[in-house]
Amino acid sequence: MKAKKLSAFSLLAVSALILSGCSSSDSAGVKIEVPDIPMHESMGEFEGEINIVNWAGFVDPKWTDKFEADTGCKVKSRTAGTSDEMVTLMRTGQYDIVSASGDAALRLIVGGDVQPLNVDLIPNFGDEIAPGMRNNIYDTVNGKPYGVPIGRGANLLQYNDDVTKGAPTSWDVVWETNSPYKGKITAYDAPIYIADAAVYLMYHKPELGITNPYALDQTQLDAAIALLKQQNTIVGEYWSDAVAQITSFVGGNTVVGTSWEILRKFAGKPNIKTTLPKEGSTGWYDSWLVSSKTKNVNCAYAWMDYTSTASVNGAIAMNFGMAPANIAFCSSSAEAQAHCDEFAAEDEEFFKQVWPWTTPIETCVDGRKDVKCTSFQEWTNAWATIKG
Amino acid sequence: MSAHTTQGGTKPISSYLYKRAKVRLIGLIGLPMFWIVGVYIFSLFLLLITAFWFVDPFTSKVIVGFTLENFISIFTVPAYISTSIRTLLIALAVTGVCVIFAVPLGIYMAKIARPWVRNTLAVAITLPLWAGYLVKIIAMRLVFTEEGFFNWALAPLGISGPTFSIPIVILTLTYLWFPYMALPVFTAIRQIPPNLFDASSDMGAKGFTTIYRIVLPLIVPAIIAGSVFTFSLSLGDYLVAKFTGGSTQMIGSIIASNINLNPPVAAAFSMVPIAFVVIYLMVARRTGSLERM
């Protein structure tokens, strides 16, 4: 019965694929089981408040004041430090909307914690969203959109040019035991960093057959963990706290390691630079997701629509230090254009080498049907064994 | 008779309590018992229960149920075992270093130093307690960065200090918890009557013999009291390892990283330091020093 239903669905999915031609490769073709949650049908009266879980810098009086005046929705913001904290907070049911990165988004979607979106009610969610931020699997599941893109950034290789004398061309300086910067390497301290190991293996060990760093079967995960354990012997520090990472580079303890463009900027030293090595990298793509238990759904939709306008979306992107989702912002002023250029907002060639953070789930997001992929829980357990 | 009634009239609460021993007892220990049982033990109990729950592998949501898997993992995952042992050794080392610093300092302050030196030292020991905990850790981080104060000061001698690693963690923890050891030790030494020192030297004992045979036995309870702090506080810490430990992982680091990812594992792991402290207290009790505390 279930198999029948599934095959019927895949037939449907295939026909949908044929119909839509080659729209988006990522999310089509992968069927993920998600709880059936109805979407908001039409806008009603504003409820008077909105509770947001967000990254630092996403909610600021500079743009919330106008929103509150326009809609009467009082903005209450709770800043979270990590994706995992965001997931925990959203599951309390006390928040209406979250600025989730892809590694949190898919977890929330399959867990039934967020609802599918009715994009007709978000007029500003339109053609000007950067192509690379549309229809990605972390926020568009089974063809249904769950997220409104906010912005993105890549996990780059940051290096101290005084020591390296030029940009490293490969991530091997942070992975291989013969790295000249042994002991002065920093790595990101979260299970999702396993994907960075997978990206490196995709390039250097094609025989493993990894085609998507978030779809690892057990053998592939074991290989990534072995690489991370090898890295553990040469790593100087793991970072999850941005300030600690910055002082580590500025203070000379770290010479190479994972970073974000904004952290390079905060370091404020001309010899601290970033590069995207030949293997490519991972990155964080943030979107607004609405809680399935929200009592303020109209305020939430209004907020998503408001923050999708070029000017507000750009203000958030500049405040946080990332590429805005709405690239119409870039041409709005010289300053905006400079920001977009610095963060590669319109450079799809650049972001093509970046794998957006996606929660690993048992369904292989690369489309494989013959194996079971490792879930985020298995990544978490494996991550705990790396640091020993 | 008449005097009795007047007293009862003017002090109704006292006379009420005088007749009722149970109410008196409740009045005395009600509040602290509420704190210990209602807040302290109860939250520990909730923590223990969580340790038997598990996480849904698909949605990574916590599921209420029963499994021993979390406890088994503590004893079977090599990384967990090595982390527990490392944390235990770090906590013991911190306690040891604190004792080595506190005893001579206490003897000097209590018996040798002039009053103003003693007071200055007492302020100097307690002063760090006034600064924020995180501030002190960050300060240590800055001192020991590659281009920090330590290397800068030693550069003329051609020496470069250690990078963030276990020794720096021990040093930082010692810095944080030293007052908790130094103060009880100092107080205990002050309470040793001076004539004991005179008697010791009259009988021909030299300085070190006096310390070893007179002072140390008398201050063991103070050292145990101080070590309960230095030991248990070190066991539970994770920010020191995070900021000054480089890639050093402690029990607290595992708990902190699992608190959102896998709360049952975090709960199970938080039982490890508790077990260590209980064992430590039992050993201390065997030596008889807890009675004299």
Word description of this protein:
- Chain A has 15 helices and 14 strands.
- Chain A is of the alpha/beta class and 388 residues long.
- Chain A has 2 domains: 24-152 and 284-356, Periplasmic binding protein-like II (D-Maltodextrin-Binding Protein, domain 2, 3-Layer(aba) Sandwich); 154-282 and 363-386, D-Maltodextrin-Binding Protein, domain 2 (3-Layer(aba) Sandwich), CATH 3.40.190.10.
- In chain A, strands 1, 2, 3, 6, 12, 13 and 14 form a 7-stranded mixed beta sheet that branches.
- In chain A, helix 2 (61-71) links the parallel strand 1 and strand 2.
- The longest helix of chain A is centred in the N-terminal third of the chain and has 19 residues, at 2-20.
- Chain A is globular, with a radius of gyration of 21 Å.
- Chain A starts with a helix and ends with a helix.
- The relative contact order of chain A is 0.18.
- Mean pLDDT of chain A is 89; it is low at 1-28.
- With 293 residues, chain B is mainly alpha-helical.
- Chain B folds into 2 domains: 2-50, no CATH class; 73-286, MetI-like fold (Orthogonal Bundle).
- Helices cover 78% and strands 1% of the residues of chain B.
- In chain B, helix 5 (78-112) runs parallel beside helix 9, helix 11 packs antiparallel against helix 14 and helix 13 (251-261) packs antiparallel against helix 14.
- The longest helix of chain B is centred in the first third of the chain and has 35 residues, at 78-112.
- Chain B is globular.
- The A-B interface holds A 82, 84-85, 87-88, 91, 107, 110-112, 183, 189, 191, 232, 235-238, 241, 244, 247-248, 251-253, 361-362, 375-378, 380-381, 383-388 and B 55-61, 77-80, 82-83, 141-142, 145-148, 163-164, 242-243, 246-247, 249, 253-254, 257-258, 260-262, 265.
